[in-house]
Each structure stands twice: as structure tokens, then as C-alpha cells.
Amino acid sequence: xxxxxxxxxxxxxxxxxxxxxxxxxxxxxxxxxxxxxxxxxxxxxxxxxxxxxxxxxxxxxxxxxxxxxxxxxxxxxxxxxxxxxxxxxxxxxxxxxxxxxxxxxxxxxxxxxxxxxxxxxxxxxxxxxxxxxxxxxxx
Length: 139
Hints:
alpha+beta; CATH 2.40.50
């Protein structure tokens, strides 16, 4: 019985919605002899396309660089990132990186796991800034 009431109610709502709907929409064709309108439309579409392309590039290539001092530990070569103050274990193309140098590398970060340092797969040594600055201990 309840199922029949629901079906009738749904049918009435459906009929009410379609009886109040406006008529069919008609597509209009842009016919213009004004070249400035066509140029404006073309420039607008190109700007939107460029904006989407730039936004996609930035979203995909965001935060894949580290900058900091390289140190050697028993686990291997590590780098403390100056940006987020997090330590990363460096793997990959690390043959050109010397202990004690401040470097900027690009590559891929691994996911964070427990309390071990995250790994960073070095794809390229972008810049070697030379020796790291010595930090003084204040007493």
C-alpha cells in the first residue's frame, strides 16, 4: 500500500515539474561582420586555455625541489630542507652531491612513514651553492 502511495506521489511531482518547465531552447548562431568581436572572442578563448594549461602545470609540478645542506649519516646521504625543516634521505642521482654542500635538487618525495626520514628520489642536481654555513652555538 505504501509503495503505491510513493509511486503516485512521484508521478504527481514529475508531472508538476514538467508542466511548469519552459519551452524548448533554440540555439543561436553568431553571425557578425565585425572583426573586432571575433578577435575578442578568440583572445578570450586563448586566455582561458592558457590559464588552464598553466594551472595544470603548476599543480602537477609543485613542491618537487629541496634546498639544504647535505650530510652523511650511517644510513646514507641526507638533506635537511630549508623550506619545511624536514630531513630527507637522498637516493637516485647523488654522485655529484658532496657532504657539507648546500644544494638544490629536484625529484620526487616519498610518502611519510613512521619516524624514519622520508626518501627523496633525486633526478637532477640543480645547483651547488658551495659549503654550508656553520651555525654557532650560543652559550
